[in-house]
Specification:
200 residues, mainly alpha
Length: 200
């Protein structure tokens, strides 16, 4: 699950420009993006993309809600930097691959003919694109980011594994709940909105 292709055929452009282009394309033209922008066996751009999204999300969270910064040695500034480094080097890659492992098992159980594991990793990575903004303390925005991320996941699974979007939603429901509901705070945002509307 950690394959890194040196000279891949297809896949995403490397570097900052490639990350920005991938972000725009997956948000605006997701079906075309997942069809053309995911290369079997080439996880490098997707992994970097997921790390950038996770760091952007955490930075927004820390900047707008300082109480979320873990208490480490050296004060809040140093603590934030250490936490961001941990997100980039440990938490984001581990979360991505753990979620991909769960998704792979569910695909094995629900899809007869499917794409490879590396494609699943990339789909999960790029589906996180809306969550760049999910760290901002606006429940409506966070809920939309989480919902859109889940939709992108289902579209990506549909494209890469050759199933309908409803079938992909069944196969991807649990990973979507874990990633977008819990990790990126979609469930918390929805609860806040429901409380505000007097429904909870």
């Amino acid at each position: 699950m950690t394959t890194w292709v040196e000279n891949p055929e297809g896949g995403r452009e490397r570097g900052p420009r490639g990350i920005v282009r991938a972000w725009v394309e997956v948000l605006v033209r997701p079906r075309r993006f997942f069809e053309n922008g995911v290369a079997p066996g080439d996880q490098a751009p997707g992994l970097v993309f997921a790390i950038v999204v996770a760091v952007a999300y955490t930075t927004g969270l820390f900047a707008t809600t300082p109480a979320r910064i873990p208490s480490l040695a050296g004060g809040p500034g140093v603590s934030a930097l250490v936490a961001l480094a941990a997100v980039a080097l440990l938490l984001a890659p581990a979360t991505l691959h753990l979620t991909a492992a769960i998704q792979t098992v569910l695909l094995v159980l629900t899809v007869r003919s499917r794409g490879g594991i590396s494609e699943t990793v990339q789909v999960l990575a790029y589906a996180s694109a809306p969550c760049v903004l999910a760290g901002l303390p606006i429940p409506e925005l966070r809920a939309v980011c989480a919902l859109y991320g889940a939709i992108l996941l289902f579209v990506g699974l549909s494209e890469r594994h050759g199933v309908s979007v409803p079938h992909a939603a069944v196969a991807g429901g649990v990973p979507a709940a874990l990633l977008f509901g819990y990790v990126f705070g979609g469930f918390e945002a929805m609860q806040s909105l429901l409380r505000g509307a007097g429904l909870l």
